[in-house]
Design a protein that fits this description.
It is a single chain. The chain is mainly α. The protein has a single domain, classed as Tetratricopeptide repeat domain (Serine Threonine Protein Phosphatase 5, Tetratricopeptide repeat, Alpha Horseshoe), CATH 1.25.40. The protein is 83% helix and 0% strand. The chain has 6 helices and no strands. The chain starts with a helix and ends with a helix. Pfam families: TPR_14 (PF13428), TPR_4 (PF07721). It comes from Variovorax defluvii. This is Tetratricopeptide repeat protein.
Amino acid sequence: MAGHQDESLDVLRLLSQLYLRHGRQDSALALLRALCALEPGDRRASLALAYAATRAGQPRESERVIDRMRDEGEPSPVLDLLQGQALAAQGRHGEAEQAFETFIARRADEQRMSRDAR
């Protein structure tokens, strides 16, 4: 039975990505909401949901997803980028600029740490 559920979740992931690529953000958003409800720990689905929500005109939903991921300990600079996009979509340009600057700084730190680890 678990195998069928895994296949169903994979289909939801695939369809949501196809919808996003072809400009059907509302459809992608609906699928990603379902996927995140079924698999709340799916990091990639949560990131895709935050992205799709902003693209579908729901930037506050995107912020809620980002806040939840941060509360769960997600350190990714990608969250700063997604937050900047959500803030910009709401006309909160000063806050968006700050989020983008944080993204750039964290990205640079990651790249520096990656180079140093070699």
